[in-house]
Amino acid sequence: MRGPSFDHGDFHSMSMPAMKTEVSAVAIPQATAAAPIVTMTPKRAPRADTYAKIAKETAARVVPPLIVIALLLVVWELICRRAGSSLPPPSKVFKDTRELILDPFFDNGGIDKGLFWHLSASLQRVAYGYSLAAIVGIGLGTLVGQSVWAMRGLDPLFQVLRTIPPLAWLPLSLAAFRDGQPSAIFVIFITSVWPIIINTAVGIRNIPQDYRNVAAVVQLNPLEFFTKIMIPAAAPYMFTGLRIGIGLSWLAIVAAEMLIGGVGIGFFIWDAWNSSHISEIILALFYVGIIGFVLDRLIAGLGKVVTRGTAAN
Amino acid sequence: MQAYLKLDHIDKTFTRGSATTEVLKDINLTIEKGEYVSIIGHSGCGKSTLLNIVAGLTGATNGGVLLENREVNAPGPDRAVVFQNHSLLPWLTVYENVKLGVDKVFARTKSRTERDAWVMHNLSLVQMAHAKDKRPSEISGGMKQRVGIARALAMEPKVLLLDEPFGALDALTRAHLQDSVMALHQKLGNTILMITHDVDEAVLLSDRIVMMTNGPSARIGEVLEVPLARPRKRLELATNPGYLKCRQRVLEFLYERHSFVEAA
Ligand SMILES: Nc1ncnc2c1ncn2[C@@H]1O[C@H](COP(=O)(O)OP(=O)(O)O)[C@@H](O)[C@H]1O
Ligand SMILES: [Mg+2]
């Protein structure tokens, strides 16, 4: 309701009499009687103005990246258009992948499927591995954050294990599971679990003593303490870990799928490379980037909703 | 004197690594049912430590606490605490903060609708019913403290423990809240143990004032009866000789005989 232009209403009223008439015309009557200077309720902005403002703000956000993208495409086109260039220019990428873009749902059996199926297979693996990591990570993180002995015992182990690159786990998990699907899920899990554990533990350790005292006086049992105090109090930290975790999951799945084969965006890229379909690789990378971005935003948005009350106090 | 709450030969020593500090030394105190007792002393002498021992949040090194002749050594809703910094859970609304305790304490004895009514009743007692759906971050410091008081009252504690409940508030808000607490005490007859470092507050509210010596090894230096009739009126007391005499006694204790020495 309050328009920024009238924030200094009293100032205007002194220096610009014309302004005052306009303003007092819309002031709330009973408030005017009490304190004329404070009551300069701003005129409500007309609807068209509001839309114009929103459009302007949107444009300010959308236009600069569009310009940069357009420029990059032009430069790319210019560089790669020469004959004998090892990478295709954007125009050729589009021409080559037209069918893949327009029909992402075809399924000719085997791995000859539309991009939708490859992406959804990858997302499914991420969903399994990441959910598992979230549950185990929050559980272990709580244990380590709550118990000094658990921390002393487990923390050094975590610090070493978390530095192992995701793909280094793959041969071991293939040996253990003897199958690509669970191995890929395990790689996702083991990659994304560490930041979740570590951030949760920090969050639990930082729960103010006051909240613990409140819980003690009210006599919450351990389960109630976990759900009613620990989870909400540590939620901002947990979501930091969950957000890092989802990013790592998506990084790891593409690499893992290149090695395990089958349906999945990682193997699609590898397959395209083997068949020298460079344009398809570029298209796949574009999709991988967009989905990674969306996943990150999703977790960030969820975190914002869940931690609404916790952050500010 | 009928002992309702009894602090029996309490010592408290903190040990941190190889360093030990004796904070409290041989604290003895008996409180009657319905009595309002204040503990006053300089900052750092161990008032909060003593209150936490009564609350069961900290263990005593020696001695113990008896409530109705039974030893208490774990926290519980029979000794509800109003914390200095309100300690409301920021992710819960005002209503939910009070409900948390009510749901636990009356899980078996009150139905869901009765518990809801009881929460609202206690919010009304502190004039906070209107803000029931607000979060702590949306209300003022004085209001938060009111909700803290409602949360404690709603547990129907045998003893209400207040740790400098008005310490963080501005003078006007503080006076307002003191009047509210006085009215509640009058109406409900709770047994109250309050920590304060404000002499006027102690004299205005208390039946007895317990004065603590400086730490380390703080003891109870003196206990002063406040023989002023209730209900007490802040403005009338300002010129009441009995009030002024009590005030003088506490001031002398704090600033002449046990003046605060800033630790180096
Ligand atoms: N957990 C603890 N470990 C070690 N020393 C403590 C601890 N809690 C309090 N103390 C010490 O005990 C003394 C009394 O503290 P406190 O009871 O908070 O004083 P007051 O409430 O009177 O200001 C202080 O010197 C403080 O440093
Ligand atoms: Mg204190």
Fraction of residues in β-strands of chain B = 15-25%
Report the biggest beta sheet of chain B as strand number plus sense, adding barrel if it closes. Answer: 6 strands, mixed
Strand content of chain A: under 5%
Provide the residue-averaged pLDDT of chain B: 92
Topology:
The complex is a heterodimer of chains A (313) and B (264).
Chain A: H1 9-15, H2 17-24, H3 29-34, H4 47-80, H5 90-102, H6 115-146, H7 148-161, H8 166-177, H9 180-205, H10 209-218, H11 222-260, H12 265-274, H13 278-306, H14 308-311
Helix pairs in contact in A: 1-2, 5-13, 6-7, 6-9, 6-11, 6-12, 8-9, 9-11, 11-12, 11-13, 12-13
Chain B: E1 5-16, E2 19-31, E3 36-40, H1 47-55, E4 62-67, E5 70-72, E6 81-82, H2 94-105, H3 112-125, H4 141-154, E7 159-163, H5 171-188, E8 191-196, H6 199-205, E9 208-212, E10 220-225, H7 234-237, H8 241-257
Parallel strand pairs in B: 3-8, 3-9, 6-7, 7-8
Antiparallel strand pairs in B: 1-2, 1-4, 4-5, 9-10
Description:
The complex is a heterodimer of chains A (313) and B (264). Chain A is an all-alpha fold and 313 residues long. The N terminus of chain A is likely disordered. Chain A is built from 14 helices and no strands. The two termini of chain A are 26 Å apart. Chain A is flat, with a radius of gyration of 28 Å. In chain A, helix 1 packs across helix 2, helix 6 runs antiparallel to helix 7 and helix 6 crosses helix 12. Chain A is 78% helix and 0% strand. Chain B is α/β, with parallel strands linked by helices and 264 residues long. In chain B, 36% of the residues lie in helices and 24% in strands. Chain B has eight helices and ten strands. Chain B has a six-stranded mixed sheet, with helices on both faces. In chain B, helix 2 packs across helix 3. The longest helix of chain B has 18 residues. Chain B starts with a strand and ends in a 7-residue tail after the last helix. The mean pLDDT of chain B is 92. Bound molecules: adenosine-5'-diphosphate and magnesium ion. The site of magnesium ion has 3 residues of chain B, from helix 1.
